[in-house]
Amino acid sequence: MIVKRISCQVKENQADAFSKYQEQWQPLNQITGFLGQVGGWSIKNQFTACIVSFWQSKDDYDYFMDYVHDDIFLNMDQSNTYTAIDVELFNTVFEIPEVEDNIISVLKESHFIRTALCDVKDGRTSRFIEIQRSVWNPGLKMTGKMLGREFSSSLKADNRFFVFTGWLSKEAHQEYLNLTFPALKNQAMPELDLEEMIGEQFIIENSWRVIPLK
User: Which 3-state string (H, E, C) describes the chain?
Assistant: First the structure.
């Protein structure tokens, strides 16, 4: 599965316009291989728009970009609402077994998203991946309020990873931070592996949510 991360720095006086344009991506729901898209405004920076989409395969995504994307994008003026955009593709490494039935269900039911863009130190990739599997996955599964987690690797950098988690609510995520996260962090010791991490949190804008028709 392909995960697409988009981060837009939106002009302060264009936030409403950007949001209106983002609603116009609903035709994605008819594209073969499209699994869903969610987005919202970063809690850290109210003018950073965070968008994450999921595709069945790279071939499906490439077909969309080659034959469909411009028909939607060029018919709107969204590019004039932001000053910078960062886009990167990732390939799913693993999910949390026995939590999500499928990513479509996660995207339908989640109301709060936490992501982490992780650059791993040289020589630490194997440990970082194993810690994701053996520490973070079981720990997050036990919270009972996290609906799904996707751990994926960058298509352009061997040491870059993207972690996506969907939650029932902002409050559910905060409860996890207060009660569970400190012990997991002490066990995982991420400082041993991480060169840099960019974390984002956002409440899903329901009008930006796109779920496939089938």
Answer: CEEEEEEEEECHHHHHHHHHHHHHHHHHHHCCCEEEEEEEEECCCCCEEEEEEEECCHHHHHHHHHHCHHHHHCCCCHHHHEEEEEEEEEEEEEECCCCCCCHHHHHHHCCEEEEEEEEECCCCHHHHHHHHHHHHHHHHHCCCCEEEEEEEEECCCCCEEEEEEEECCHHHHHHHHHHCHHHHHHHHCHHHCEEEEEEEEEECCHHHCECCCC
